[in-house]
Amino acid sequence: MTDVVTVIGGGLAGTEASWVLAERGVKVILFEMRPFVKTPAHHTGYLGELVCSNSLRSLSLENAAGLLKEEMKLLGSLIMQCALENAVPAGGALGVDREAFAKCITAKIENHPNIEVVRKEVKSIPSGIVIIASGPLSSPALSDAIRELTGEEHLYFYDAASPIVIAESIDFSKTFKASRYGKGDPDYVNCPLTEEEYYDFYKSLIEAERHPLHDFEKEIFFEGCMPIEVLAQRGEKTLLFGPLKPVGIIDPRTGKQPFAVVQLRQENREATLYNLVGFQTNLKWPEQKRVFSKIPALKNAEFIRYGVMHRNTFINSPKLLKPTLQFKKDKRLFFAGQITGVEGYIESAATGIVAGINAERLFRNKKLLCFPKETAIGALCNYITSPKDNFQPMNINFGIIPPLEKRIKNKKKRNLALSKRALDAMKKFINENGL
Ligand SMILES: Cc1cc2nc3c(=O)[nH]c(=O)nc-3n(C[C@H](O)[C@H](O)[C@H](O)COP(=O)(O)OP(=O)(O)OC[C@H]3O[C@@H](n4cnc5c(N)ncnc54)[C@H](O)[C@@H]3O)c2cc1C
């Protein structure tokens, strides 16, 4: 082993990881290819640049994004420090002045005596302990190296995810379980629509507002992954031969085949989350809520992740990583950030903290740490590294945190209780492990 830890990528995860290591007395070499080699979405040479929105989401502990940020603060997060120092008014959310925020991160990292920033594209995996945090827009050469490391089928280059809803917000009285043609186990939750309901849904769908696509994202459509609204435009019945196909699905309550059926697939082992099968979409988020709530069983559905279609590089973490974010096949390697399959700025930064802490522990021959599952950070690491058939990136949300022992009906109170339990667990974990 060398006497430094190498971090690849000076984005949100890589800077957090470098900071954690440096603050604990470990020398870090941080490689960042910008400004010499650009990505399709970054515009500056600053470290920690936000590529899109300037919001780090809710500050409230009634919201899982608020909880995640609170935990990050307890762990001495650099991103949180710079965000709070450069906050702009944003209602209940943490909005930042993006340039001042990125400048703050850049200055703190570049001025840290234990960090050397090298502005160079990494094209192969370096020796020694390495944290790979090269993000959703990892350079092609490095992506090739990661593909070689992980195996072709374990690196995905785009994200075409369907929305996910919380189980308890689904009206199960308007659903039934059945498999198509009665084959296999009736694992899917079927949401029937009458002819009238279907055409109402269809009309809203084709009229709904979409996200504009970057040029580099247009290629996604050619990979056999059509957004539902584009499919719908081909004809008013097209969806009845695609994601809303009713054929072979009999509603046991009527003994008949409904006019149209939306299928929900269980998303996690605890069955607290379900995804809408075949609903990958590029609609704007409020539009997704408006249009998909027209499905009778989803009238009051709570969406914890909206459908997305964008360029994203992420590995098959459920197969490849331990909850410590260590790479199973080569223990000197860690992954952090969006490339692990978490989704979002703060989620990426949070995994940078976990990888940084565990890389430091490996460096000092200490036992690596799994964060408690009750915490937002632990739940995220647990989610991305638990077995899954169809792994898709995930934002933090209360649906992936284990439920309270005693159920609280009121959602606000329940979320606050989950946050309190998480913060207590995090404080205990920090004390016990001298973090
Ligand atoms: C177009 C787009 C829009 C997004 N919008 C949002 C949003 O609005 N809100 C949100 O919460 N999340 C958003 N995300 C998702 C995600 O949270 C961000 O991409 C986030 O920046 C990920 O953090 P990261 O540290 O993993 O990667 P990044 O912040 O992208 O950092 C990775 C760094 O690695 C560098 N790098 C790549 N390859 C190499 C190499 N070979 N050698 C050296 N350096 C390299 C890159 O230049 C970059 O600086 C968006 C993602 C994309 C692609």
Summarize this entry quickly:
This protein has 435 residues and is an alpha/beta fold. It has helices spanning 12-23, 64-74, 78-85, 98-110, 140-150, 195-207, 215-218, 228-233, 285-292, 317-320, 345-363, 376-385, 411-432, and strands at 4-8, 27-31, 55-58, 87-88, 93-96, 115-118, 129-132, 155-161, 164-166, 176-177, 189-193, 260-266, 273-276, 303-305, 308-315, 333-335. The chain is built from 13 helices and 16 strands.
Largest sheet, described in full?
Answer: 6 strands, antiparallel
What is the mean pLDDT?
92
Each distinct ligand: flavin-adenine dinucleotide
- Any idea how many domains? 2
The helix content, as a percent range, equals: 25-40%
Strand order of the largest sheet: 10-11-12-13-9-14
Please tell me about this protein's structure.
With 435 residues, this protein is α/β, with parallel strands linked by helices. The protein folds into two domains: 4-161 and 310-432, FAD/NAD(P)-binding domain (3-Layer(bba) Sandwich), CATH 3.50.50.60; 164-305, Elongation Factor Tu (Ef-tu), domain 3 (Beta Barrel), CATH 2.40.30. It is built from 13 helices and 16 strands. It has helices spanning 12-23, 64-74, 78-85, 98-110, 140-150, 195-207, 215-218, 228-233, 285-292, 317-320, 345-363, 376-385, 411-432; strands spanning 4-8, 27-31, 55-58, 87-88, 93-96, 115-118, 129-132, 155-161, 164-166, 176-177, 189-193, 260-266, 273-276, 303-305, 308-315, 333-335. It has a six-stranded antiparallel sheet with strand order 10-11-12-13-9-14. A five-stranded parallel sheet has the order 6-2-1-7-16, with helices on one face. Strands 3-5-4 form a three-stranded antiparallel sheet. Helix 2 runs parallel beside helix 13 (411-432). The longest helix has 22 residues, at 411-432. The protein is globular. It starts with a strand and ends with a helix. The model has no long low-confidence stretch (mean pLDDT 92). Residues 8-14, 31-34, 39, 41-42, 51-53, 121-122, 133-139, 142, 310-311, 337-339, 344-345, 348 line the site of flavin-adenine dinucleotide.
